[in-house]
Amino acid sequence: MWDYSEKVKEHFYNPKNAGAVEGANGVGDVGSISCGDALRLTLKVNPETEIIEDAGFQTFGCGSAIASSSALTEIIKGMTLDQALQVSNQDIADFLDGLPPEKMHCSVMGREALQAAVANYRGEEWVDDHEEGALVCKCFAIDEVMIEETIRANQLRTVEEVTNYTKAGGGCSSCHEGIENILTRVLAESGETFVPGGVAIAAAKKPAAKKEAAAGGAKMGTLARIRKIEAVLDSIRPALQADNGDVELIDVEGNTIYVHLTGACTGCQMAAMTLGGIQQRMIEELGEFVKVVPAAKETLVSMGA
Amino acid sequence: MSDIYLDNNATTMVAPEVFEEMKPFFCEQFGNPSSLHSFGNKVGFALKKARQQVQALLGAEHDSEIIFTSCGTESDSTAILSALKAQPERKEIITTVVEHPAVLTLCEYLETEGYTVHKLEVDTKGRLDLDKYRALLSDKVAVVSVMWANNESGTLFPVEEMATMAAEAGVMFHTDAVQAVGKIPINLAESNIHMLSLSGHKLHAPKGVGVLYLKRGTRFRPLLRGGHQERGRRAGTENAPAIIGLGKACEMAQAHLEFENTQVKAMRDRLEAGLLAAIPNCFVTGDPDNRLPNTASIAFEYIEGEAILLLMNKVGIAASSGSACTSGSLEPSHVMRAMGIPYTAAHGTVRFSFSRYNTMEEVERVIEEVPGIVAKLRKLSPYWGDNGPVENPDEAFAPVYA
Ligand SMILES: Cc1ncc(COP(=O)(O)O)c(C=O)c1O
Fold first, then answer.
1. What is the C-alpha separation between B69 and B198, in angstroms, rounded?
2. In A, which residues are within 8 Å of B325 by CB distance?
3. Any bridge partners for residue A294, and if so which?
4. Would you state the pLDDT for residue A240?
C-alpha cells in the first residue's frame, strides 16, 4: 500500500468539485488511459474579470489522481486565469501535504489539465511536450524518459554523471543496475558501448574523527562558504523566477548542498536541468566538487487499516 | 465487524495448527538437524516427516524428490538455471507471456545473456495454443517453464499434457505451481513433469519457505553450493520451523482438497454471480470453465483499481488489483493486457481470492458493499454519464497524452 497523507485521504474519500461544471467555457482533457490516469477539468470563467468562478473535475485514476484533481479545483477557484497559471504541480502536492514519489505525476497531470483548460478558454491550442516513462529512481522520482533524454542531451557516459545531472541514483543506489541498462541502450544508439567506469564498491568508511578534522580544515571557512553558496543561488534566482520558480537553501552537509526548488516540477526535465545547472555553477564558483540535492519533505502518514 | 480477507493468492494466514506444530522448534528443539546429538536429531526426524507430508500432497514417488528452498521464487530460479547449466548446448527456453515475474523477469535477464526465450501467447480467455507450443519444441530447448495456475485470473494451463509433449521431444519441463498446490489434486508420480515449484505462504504455511520438486533422474545443478543439506542440492542450514510448518500445512491442504473444490468454490461462485447481477459493465476475466476454485477476477469498466481497493479497504475488505498504480508500474497487469482486455477495463480489474477460512456471510457483505463503491467512482469518471457509460466513450473522452 502507498503511504498517503491524511490530506490525500480526505480529498480522495470526499472529493471536492467532482463532476462537470454547468455552463463551462474552458475544458482540458489530459492523461493517458494506458497508464491508468486521465482527467477532464471544466472551468467557468467570468469573461469580464477572467476569474475562475467554478471548477469541476472528472477523473479516471487512482486515489492520488482523484485527490490531486480535487486539490487543484480547490486551489484555483476564485483565482484569475493568470494567477491560476502560476500554480505549479509542487503547489498541488504541497496542498496535499506531499505525495509519494511514484505519485508525483498525478500532480503534474493536474497542472497540465489546468494549462489545457485555460488554452481551450482562450481559443489556443495546447500542446503537451511532457512524456513520462517508468519510474527508475524512487528516492528522487526520476523516470526513464527523463534519464534517456538527459543522457542524449549531455552525452553522459557513466552512472555518476547521470546522478549528477538528474539526481537519479543519488539516494539508496538500488537503481544503479537500471541506470546502467539505460546507458547501455542509449549509447548503443550512437554505436557506443557502455563501459562501467568508476568503482564497483562504495568507498571505504573513514574513521569519524578524521572526517571531522577534514571538514574543519576545509579550504574556505564555513560561514564564508555558505555566503558564497547563497550568492550563487541569488545570481540564479532571477532566471528561475522568470519561469515561476524559485530556489531556497535548506542545508549544507559536507559537500552536499540541499535546496528546495519551488515552482518547477520535481519530476520533470526542467528540474533536473535546473539542479544540474546550479551544481555546475556551484562547482565553478566554490572551486570544489559539490552535490546539489533537492530536499525531500517527509510528512507522510501511513494509509493504515 | 471484523475485516474480510479476500487476497489469499497474495498470501495466506498461517493456520493455527501449523503455528502450533512449529512452536517447539524455536526455543526448545532448536538444534541443527545435521548434528549428531539429540538436539539435532529430533529436528532431523521432524524434517523427514515434513518431507513426507509434502510428498503426499504432490503425489511424488520418492521423498528425496522434495528439495526445501526459501521461497517460490528461489524454486523457479533454481529450476530454470539448473536446466541451462546442465545442458549448456541448449540455448532456448519456452515459457508464456502470463508467467509470474519470478519466471518472466529471470527470462528477460537470460535474454540479455544470449538465450532465446519463446513466450507463448494467450487468447482472450487466457488459453494457450498447443500447436504453436508443439512447433517450438526441439533439441535446442533447455527447459519449458509454464505455470500451472495463473495468480491473477486463476486460469489453469494443461501442464500435464504439455509435460508429456515435452518429454516426447526430449525436453525438460518445469511448472510454477505456486498457486495450484493445495487447491487442485496433483499426482506427480503419474506425470511427466520434471520440476515443480511451490511456496509455503500460499497454503497457510509461513512465508519464506518453498519447495522444488525434482523428479528422480533429472539432471540438476544447484543454485547454492556449500554444505550437504538437501543432499547437496540446496546448501544452507534448513529453516526447520518453517519446513515443519509447511509439512503440516500440506497435510491439512490434502485433507481439505474436497472442501476447497466444493465449499470454497461455492463462495467464489456466489460472489461472482452477486456482483455481476448488481453491477453493470463488469465481466469475469480468464477462462471461467477451467480455473482455480478460489479465484474470481472481475474487471469493472471505466474506473481504476487502486481507487476501488482503497474504498474497499475503508470498509474492511481486502483484495488486489491489476491496475498500473497498485503495481507501481506504468502499464496495467501484463496478464490482462495479454488477454487483450482494453485499458479502460484492465485498470479496473479486481481479484478476489478465497481460502477455507472465509465464510458465506463475508461473501454477502462484499456483495452489499462493492456496488456502491463502483458507482461512487464511476460518478467521478469522465467515461460515465448519468446512468451508464457515455456514448462512444473512446471519442467522448480522448485525453492528450500527458
Ligand atoms: C505464480 C507465482 N509464482 C511465484 C510466486 C513467488 O513466490 P514467493 O513469494 O514464495 O517467492 C508467486 C507469489 O507471489 C506466484 O503467485
1. 9
2. 36-37, 61-63, 65
3. A259
4. 72
Q: Which residues of A are catalytic?
A: 35, 106
pLDDT the model gives residue A284:
77
Residue pLDDT, tens place only, B247-265: 999 999 999 999 999 999 9
Residue B134: how many CA atoms within 13 Å on its side-chain side?
7
For ligand 1, is residue B149 a contact (CB within 6 Å)? no
ipTM for the assembly: 0.88
Distance of alpha carbon A194 from alpha carbon A175, whole angstroms? 16
CATH superfamily, region A129-190: BFD-like [2Fe-2S]-binding domain (1.10.10.1100)
Nearest to A62 among B307, B313, B398 (CB): B307
Residue A166 has pLDDT above 70, yes or no: yes
Which sequence spans correspond to the domains of chain A? 6-121, 129-190, 208-302
**For residue A107, which of B332, B383, B321, B402 has the smallest C-alpha distance?**
B402
Give the model confidence (pLDDT) of B227-251 as tens digits: 999 999 999 999 999 999 999 999 9
Give CA–CA dist B357/B66, Å, rounded: 28
User: Which ligand 1 atom sits closest to the C-alpha of B208?
Assistant: 10
> Which is it for the CA torsion B179, B213, B77, B208, positive or negative?
positive
**Chain B CB contacts of A29 below 8 Å:** 382, 397-400
The DSSP bridge partners found for residue A51 are A80
Average pLDDT over residues B391-398: 84
For A169, phi and psi rounded to 5 degrees? 85, 0
Burial group, residue B389, by CB count within 10 angstroms (0-12, 13-18, 19+): middle
Number of residues written out for chain A: 305
Amino acid identity of A189?
E
Instruction: Give contacts of A37 with chain B, Cβ < 8 Å.
Output: 304, 325
A6-121 in CATH: which number? 3.90.1010.10
More confident residue, A11 or A108: A11
**pLDDT band, residue A303 (cuts 50/70/90):** very low
Helix, strand, coil share of chain A (percent; to 5)? 45, 15, 40
A124-143: b (≥16 Cβ within 10 Å) or e: eebeeebebeebbbbbbbbb
Name the closest residue on chain A to residue B383, using Cα atoms.
Answer: A60
Output the pTM of the full model.
Answer: 0.83
Domain A208-302: give its CATH superfamily. Answer: Fe-S cluster assembly (FSCA) (3.30.300.130)
Inform me whether the pLDDT recorded for A266 exceeds 50: no
Strand partners, A38: A31, A60
**Does position A200 have pLDDT exceeding 70, yes or no?**
no
